[in-house]
Structures are given as structure tokens and as C-alpha cells.
Amino acid sequence: MERPAQVQPAVSLEESTLLDALRRGDEDAFARLVGEHHATLRRVARLYVANASTADEVVQDTWLGVIQGIWAFEGRSSLKTWIFRILVNRARTRAVRESRSAPFSGTLSTESAAEPGVSVSSEHSLFRDDSTAHGLWTRPPLDPGSSPERSLLTKELRERLRTVIDALPSNLRIVLWLRDVEGWSSDEVCNALAIQETNQRVLLHRARSRVRAALEPYLEGAGGGARQR
Amino acid sequence: MKPPAEMTCDEVVELVTAYLEGALPPQERDRFEAHRQGCSGCETYVSQVRLTVSALGQLQPSAGEDLSAEQGRILELFRTRGLHRREKRNRDIPLGLGNERAALGDHIVYFWESEREFDATASFLAAGVSLGEACVLIGHDAAHERLLASLERRGLSVRALMQERQLQVASVRLSADGLLLELDERIKDAVHRGMPTVRILGNLNWGRGTPGWPSDREILRLEAQVTRVAERLPSIVVCVYDVTNLPGPMLVKGGLECHPLTFRRDCLRHNEHHVAPERFLEEL
What is the DSSP letter of A182? Predict the structure, then answer.
């Protein structure tokens, strides 16, 4: 979870060579760029628009934005960050047009993400007033130490995770996905979504709390067989 | 001095993400860790969150689908739609004026006489907003006031659009070079923020003769050069010319000779009177 040190300039020498090639119309350079990012763009587009073919159109529009904006792009961010900013713009515009309600807005206050059953408060049901051997946990979450990570992702668990992620409000979903599934740093996520770091952390916290709560039966079961499965 | 109170289980749950992100100040981190060591419930909770993160990290499928057909289509876009091409571009972007469509790089003169014709230019902006594009106004404050009021009447929140910088007002500079730099900067900023296209609506003739306003000559130098700038950047430029009040030389030289396209009577037309910018500047 350590954040990478920000010592590198936004655009490396390698990247500025690539930009020059793209501006010249070098197809091989563009093909490599597409190969590198296309699959991720598709996965992220689907977080915004449910329909797969609409998501593919969003991705195609994104590449068109890259192709046409390449002369105006000056490397104020990395190429990857820029490409995902275009994707987010295209996906939001598309989602607004289709549903007439913005699923994710950069200015969205963290409070407006609140819904019934918001993560953190639901944790409180685990506590009670009197102190026990386990601190204030009424029912101690069982120690997952005996559950090796490699055996964690059964097919059932994978499906459970997908269901929980799909049910998250889209602003939580996108942050959780980019951070924990795609493995982006918090800087990358903040830049691509144009949100503040503290806002990003609140969204991530809520999303992770919900996913943890949904996984709890599995974590318990793996831990000590408290529950028959 | 009293030592800081011990952290509660509630606080641990609230702060677990900040803790795992390394975002807690040292003192808070120490309190967090002290509590964790003495509370097996919280210790387990933190482990569960870590396990959750690790499970999520294993979710990403390793390459499965064959994307080569789709990537082929995208390469075709690069071949046919890149701005490095010199060929004619597809006119497929709704212009918002009449029922016309524009291409990136279009530099259009819009002649108006009636108030209704002037107000209609706000539709050029509204169309851009609905497509997630950026809109930049450059010109006189009085013109902008009318345009923004017209956008509000269409149900758009000017304040929200400006906050998101989807709608911007560029500063008027005295020289053509200063004006070009200002527009170039606005376009690049919008592109950097992921906007696919930038619409520029110019009302520079409105302030003619007022102090601190660029001279006719500088406006003409700008108009000639904008044509070339727009060709390279993802932009559509519409310049608004007041037929009733502008002197003939401005209408002919600025309006007709500097714009490859005209918009009049609901029609976008190629303009045979357009003069190549290089020649225009030489003879100015």
C-alpha cells in the first residue's frame, strides 16, 4: 500500500519519443499503445456503462480522442493518465446521455455517496458496550491467518466479489476497481478521475468496507470452520 | 502532559484505509498499532481488510478474449481520422447551428443581423456541452452575458459548467500573438483534462474602438492564423460578425477572406473567397 515516490517527470524520454511517433502517424507505435491499454480501457468502460457494445463504442471514442488530441497533448500528465481521462469523459457523457443522470461526477461530495447501509456504520453492529476478551467485538471476526491467500479465490468467491462490486454505487466501484483490481496507485486514480486524494480515500474506504463485510462469511469459514459450508 | 487517549475499535474501523495507505500521521499510527496489539478483534479486522484487498487483486482475468478484430478497427481510425492527415475530414460533429455538421479544424464565420440570429450562436455551445466537449468564449463581456443568459434559458447551469471548466471565458489580449497563445493554452488545458473537442466562439468585433481592445489589424492577423492552429488541434472555431454595424473592410477581409467556411441562413458553406493565411498575412 506504499505510495510510489513522485520523482519522475510526468512524461519520460521514452514517452516523448512515442508522442513524436504518434504525431508523425507511425502506425506501429499506435498499435503498441492500443495493445498496452485496450483491455484495461474495456474493463473500466464497463464499470460506467453496463451494455458491452456501448462500452466498446466508448472505448473507440476514447481512441479517437487520443488520435485527434495528440497534437494538443503536452505531457502535463503521463500518456496513460491522459488516455483514461478521455475514457472517463467519454463514459460519463455517454452514461448521462443514456440515463439522464450522472453516475459519477468529479465534484460529487463524498456525502452524496451515502446510501442506506453505508459500509462503516454497518460495522458498528459488530460492537457492543461491554468489554470482552476481544475488545468491543461482540463476535470476533475469526482469524484469517489460517487461510492461505492462494486458496482464497474459489469460483464461488470470485462470483461473490463480482456481485458485490456490481452492486456498489459507481463512484465507489470505479475507485475500488482501479486501486485494488487494476492495482493503480492513488496518484494515478486521483489524476485520472480528477478527484482529491482525501476524497479518493473516503471512496476507497467505503468500497473496501462493503466488500469486506460481504466476504466475511468466507473469511470466517476459512478461518476456523465456525460455519458449515 | 496527558498521554493521548487510547484508540477505540470504532476509530480503528474508520481509519483502517488511511492506515493501510500510510496516510496516518505518526502519532495516530502509533495509537492505531497500540490498539491493534491489544485487541484481537481489531487485529483480525485489519487482516480481513488486507485479505479483501488481496482477493480483489486476484480478480483481474488474465488475457482471455481475442481483441485483434477490434484493435484492427481502431488502427483504421488512426489511419483515416488522425489530424496528421492532410486530406479532407469527415463532417460528422453536430454543429448546433441549423442542422449542420462540422469537422475538427473548421473555422467558420457566422454573419448575423437580428437578435434571434445572435442568440442562436448559444446553440453551438449547448451542442458541445451535451457532447462532453469544452467551450471557450473570447470577446466582449456584453456578448458573453447574452450568450450565458441564453444557455441558462436552455436549462444549462452556467455556474456548474464553469466550475467543471467545461465552459471558459478566455482573456482578450492586445496582440494577435497574445490572443493566439491564450487560445492555444485553453485548448491544451481542455485536452489535458480529457475533453475530446474544444469549441471556440469569438466575439472580438463587439468591442471595437474601446480602450484596451485589439486593433482591427491585430484581429485580422489573429483570424488568418487561427485557421492553421485549428487544423492541428481538436477544435471548431466560430467567429461572430455583426453585418449591420461592422465596416465593409472588416466584413470582407475578416469575415470572408479569413474563414474557409461561412454560416448564413441556416447553411454551412465552403467559402470561395477564403485567402490562404500565408498570402493574406503577407498582403496585410
Answer: S
pLDDT tier for residue A13 given thresholds of 50, 70 and 90: confident
Chain A neighbors of B230, CB-CB under 8 A: none
Does position A148 have pLDDT exceeding 60, yes or no? no
Kindly give the interhelix angle for A79-99 and A186-193, rounded to the nearest 10 degrees: 50
- Apex A46 CA angle, A42 and A47, nearest 5: 125
Candidate from B22, B193, B232 with C-beta closest to A2: B22
ipTM of the complex: 0.86
Question: In this complex, do B78 and A25 lie within 8 Å of one another by their Cβ atoms?
Answer: yes
Task: Return the C-alpha cell found at A90.
Answer: 467519454
The pTM is what?
0.81
Find all residues with CB under 8 Å of B270, minimum gap 6, and list them: B260, B261
Cα torsion A168, A174, A175, A177 to 10°: value is 90
CB-CB: which of B18, B60, B132 is closest to A89? Answer: B132
- How far is the C-alpha of B205 from the C-alpha of B115, rounded, in Å? 16
Specify whether the CB–CB gap between A72 and B187 falls below 8 A.
yes
Of B54, B85, B191, the CB nearest to A69: B191
Residues of chain B with pLDDT under 70: 1-4, 61-65
Query: What is the crossing angle of helices A27-48 and B68-81, to 10°?
Result: 120
Do the bridges between strand A135-137 and strand B101-102 make them parallel or antiparallel, or are there none, so unpaired?
unpaired
Q: Does A128 touch chain B (CB under 8 A)?
A: no
Dump pLDDT digits (tens) for B203-257: 999 888 888 899 999 999 999 999 999 988 899 999 999 999 999 999 999 999 9
Q: Which residue of A has its CA nearest to B17?
A: A205
Give which of A27, A229, A210 is closest to A113, Cα–Cα: A210
Residue B264 sits at φ, ψ, to 5 deg, of -155, 140
Distance of CA B64 to the CA centre of its chain: 36
Q: Do B193 and A42 touch (CB under 8 A)?
A: no
- Give me the mean pLDDT over the A145-170 stretch: 75
Please state, in angstroms and rounded to a whole number, the distance separating the CA atoms of residues B259 and B277: 9
Cβ contact A215–B55 (<8 Å): yes
